[in-house]
């Protein structure tokens, strides 16, 4: 157990293990994404009211769910790097930000594309949508702060503090549809009680959410490998790896 | 002999206030900024009184927020540059309370003053008289939250040479909830409803910010000094 924990702090070990995880997780993710997309887009019944346009939820909902969860991953990684001074947690935090920002952006764009035929407008200043926009700003703020520091050690710590402060906003974003009357519908999938979505639509959606989590993990690991190489560029093992 | 923690904090508070009072122009600038931006809105939106009165809660709150944002950057900068911040971090005094004293001093010369002069601009924009006490009260509560949150941004960017734009990007997302409830409180009263729920949430935000923001500011200051 402890040796595993110590190994986590070793860049070459993490680089290698991330590579071996990716070697099976990445193909699996792509297959699951393709299967979920085909199942959701082609083999589910059209919605009674919305017709085919509802099918964008197979992208929109997973992206939004994982974008929120990704912020926690970033903040927890930041917390670990602050408390235990673990360099690799810092790498994970830094690598999380662009992935999370991209997912948030996808959620916003797909929501807006869906909103045009359904609500008749590209954008409304609704609690959920505005708070997702704030989430995007939070991610971008972390990226901007990291880039502003010349001393990357301090940059990591400052970003960790900022991302921890930002966690205050996440429950508000998550609960915004329940707390405010908003145009955005409340959550259809519930862990307790009956979901308000038909099982034939729910299963492909769950598959897509699962695949988006896996996609997030893949993107995170790839980003981390790149960041490790960048930071360790002067060390012997990286030179050997690239054959210099 | 080292003074007690509270005595130390009141010294910081006094020092910051004396420093601020010696440069009265710096105290006046946010107020002048407030007045000038208020003047921009009738020019941009058109001078129709009914429309302006409708937008007044939002306009006043946004300007207060921007004024706070512009002053946030200076909170620790002077002390960082002359090294006294380093001494503060090395001192055995509790950083939590010292940081709270810094933000309190900053709030007294910006947020409090903005809240006190806000009725004047509210009248200029045609906000109904019944909403003015709530406007002042919501600004009092809200600007204290803004000062504390702004302190986090200031502490994170104090070591950077070009902090100005960055601090806005960092803390504006955290200003937004305050803006929502602050202007909603004023709008509620202007619309003839009760604002106590909004004010209660602003008060809760303030309690939360007092409890947690100084911790984040302290951590961020240590990082900035180390950098």
UniProtKB/TrEMBL annotation, chain A:
InterPro entries: Cyt_c_assembly, Cyt_c_biogenesis_CcmC, Cyt_c_biogenesis_CcsA/CcmC
Membrane-protein topology: Multi-pass membrane protein
Gene behind this protein: ccmC
PANTHER family found in the cross-reference section: CYTOCHROME B_B6 PROTEIN-RELATED (PTHR30071:SF1), HEME EXPORTER PROTEIN C (PTHR30071)
Keyword Transmembrane carried by entry: yes
Gene Ontology CC annotations of this record: plasma membrane
KW Nucleotide-binding (keyword) present: no
Residue ranges constituting the Cytochrome c assembly protein domain according to the UniProt record: 14-183
Gene source species: Parahaliea maris
Protein name: Heme exporter protein C
UniProtKB/TrEMBL annotation, chain B:
Assigned GO CC terms: plasma membrane
Source species, domain of life: Bacteria
Keywords (A to Z) from UniProt: Cell inner membrane, Cell membrane, Cytochrome c-type biogenesis, Membrane, Transmembrane, Transmembrane helix, Transport
Transmembrane segment boundaries: 31-52, 58-76, 97-122, 134-158, 165-190, 196-221
InterPro entries given in the database record: Cyt_c_biogenesis_CcmB, Cyt_c_CcmB_bac
Membrane topology: Multi-pass membrane protein
Compartments (UniProt record): Cell inner membrane
One of the GO BP terms on file: cytochrome complex assembly
One MF annotation (Gene Ontology) recorded for this entry: heme transmembrane transporter activity
Family, per entry: Belongs to the CcmB/CycW/HelB family.
NCBIfam families listed in its UniProt record: ccmB
Function text: Required for the export of heme to the periplasm for the biogenesis of c-type cytochromes.
Protein name per Swiss-Prot or TrEMBL: Heme exporter protein B
Species whose genome carries this gene: Parahaliea maris
């Amino acid at each position: 157990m402890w040796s595993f924990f110590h190994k986590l702090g070793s860049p070459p070990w993490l680089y290698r293990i991330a590579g071996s995880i990716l070697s099976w997780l990445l193909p699996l993710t792509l297959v699951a994404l393709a299967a979920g997309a085909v199942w959701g887009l082609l083999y589910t019944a059209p919605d009674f009211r919305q017709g085919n346009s509802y099918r964008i939820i197979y992208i929109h909902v997973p992206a939004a769910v994982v974008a929120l969860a990704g912020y926690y991953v970033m903040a927890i990684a930041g917390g670990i790097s602050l408390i235990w001074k673990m360099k690799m947690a810092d790498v994970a935090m830094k690598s999380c930000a662009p992935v999370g920002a991209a997912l948030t952006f996808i959620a916003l764009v797909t929501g807006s594309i869906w909103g045009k035929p359904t609500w008749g407008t590209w954008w409304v200043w609704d609690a959920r949508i505005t708070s997702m926009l704030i989430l995007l700003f939070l991610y971008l703020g972390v990226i901007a702060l990291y880039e502003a520091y010349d001393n990357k050690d301090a940059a990591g710590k400052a970003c960790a503090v900022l991302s921890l402060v930002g966690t205050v906003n996440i429950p508000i974003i998550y609960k915004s549809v329940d707390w405010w009357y908003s145009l955005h519908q409340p959550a259809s999938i519930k862990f307790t009680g009956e979901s308000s979505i038909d099982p034939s639509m729910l299963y492909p959606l769950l598959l897509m959410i699962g695949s988006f989590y896996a996609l997030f993990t893949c993107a995170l690991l790839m980003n981390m490998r790149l960041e490790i190489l960048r930071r360790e560029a002067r060390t012997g093992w990286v030179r050997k790896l690239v054959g210099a | 002999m080292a003074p007690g923690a509270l005595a130390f904090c009141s010294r910081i508070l006094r020092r910051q206030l004396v420093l601020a009072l010696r440069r009265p122009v710096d105290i006046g600038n946010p107020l002048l900024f407030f007045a000038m931006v208020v003047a921009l809105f009738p020019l941009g939106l058109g001078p129709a009184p009914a429309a302006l009165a409708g937008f007044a809660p939002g306009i006043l709150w946004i300007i207060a927020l921007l004024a706070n944002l512009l002053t946030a950057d200076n909170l620790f900068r002077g002390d960082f540059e002359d090294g006294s911040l380093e001494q503060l971090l090395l001192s055995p005094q509790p950083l939590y309370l010292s940081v709270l004293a810094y933000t309190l001093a900053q709030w007294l010369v910006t947020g409090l003053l903005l809240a006190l002069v806000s009725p004047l601009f509210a009248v200029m924009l045609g906000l109904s008289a019944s909403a003015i006490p709530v406007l002042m009260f919501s600004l009092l509560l809200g600007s204290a939250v803004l000062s504390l949150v702004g302190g986090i941004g200031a502490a994170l960017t104090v070591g950077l040479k070009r902090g100005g734009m960055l601090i806005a990007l960092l803390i504006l997302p955290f200003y937004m909830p305050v803006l929502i409830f602050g202007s909603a409180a004023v709008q509620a009263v202007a619309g003839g409803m009760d604002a106590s729920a909004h004010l209660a949430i602003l008060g809760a935000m303030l309690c939360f910010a007092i409890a947690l923001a100084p911790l984040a500011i302290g951590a961020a200051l240590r990082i900035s000094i180390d950098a």
